[in-house]
């Protein structure tokens, strides 16, 4: 699991840079300011959580349920949150906004919150034993 968390952290980080450049250079002329801000929010949250995944992969051994749940919450949270925003904003370019993805974004946000809570609990747990 540790390696998987590090791999996803690296992939999500690289994709955040790619999507950020795509938004800054291509989509800025295609999107309204509001849509561009939504797209950029997806990129920012993706990068923040890519960095958190890498930190988790370095700090935690992923030997217990709490650590594994933290990793999966962050991995799936990025996918549901950021990628649903990308799909919603880009699909609107083609006049076919995928409205069914609207409820997916907050679910990703809830997984982010769970991941951060578990991160904090796991840090406290390992700090006690240091």
Which range best describes the helical content: under 10%, 10-25%, 25-40%, 40-55%, 55-70% or over 70%?
over 70%
Strands, count: 0
- Spatial separation of the terminal alpha carbons: 23 Å
Write down the Rg. 16 Å
Beta percentage is under 5%
Give me the number of helical elements: 4
Instruction: Report mean pLDDT, rounded to a whole number.
Output: 94
Describe this structure in words.
The protein has 130 residues and is an all-alpha fold. It has one domain (2-124). 81% of the residues lie in helices and 0% in strands. The protein has four helices and no strands. α2 (33-59) packs antiparallel against α3 (65-93). It is elongated. The mean pLDDT is 94.
Summarize the structure.
Helices cover 81% and strands 0% of the residues. It has 130 residues and is mainly α.
Write the layout of secondary structure elements.
Elements: H1 2-25, H2 33-59, H3 65-93, H4 104-128
Helix pairs in contact: 1-2, 1-3, 2-3, 3-4
What keyword list fits this structure?
130 residues; mainly alpha; 4 helices
């Amino acid at each position: 699991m540790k390696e998987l968390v590090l791999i996803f952290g690296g992939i999500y980080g690289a994709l955040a840079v790619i999507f950020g450049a795509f938004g800054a250079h291509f989509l800025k002329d295609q999107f309204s300011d509001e849509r561009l801000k939504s797209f950029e929010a997806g990129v920012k949250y993706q990068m923040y959580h890519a960095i958190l995944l890498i930190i988790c992969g370095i700090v935690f051994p992923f030997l217990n349920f709490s650590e594994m749940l933290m990793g999966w919450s962050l991995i799936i949270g990025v996918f549901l949150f950021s990628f649903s925003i990308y799909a919603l904003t880009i699909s609107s370019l083609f006049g076919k906004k995928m409205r069914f993805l609207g409820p997916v974004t907050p679910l990703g946000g809830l997984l982010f919150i769970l991941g951060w809570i578990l991160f904090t609990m796991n840090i406290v747990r390992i700090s006690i034993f240091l």
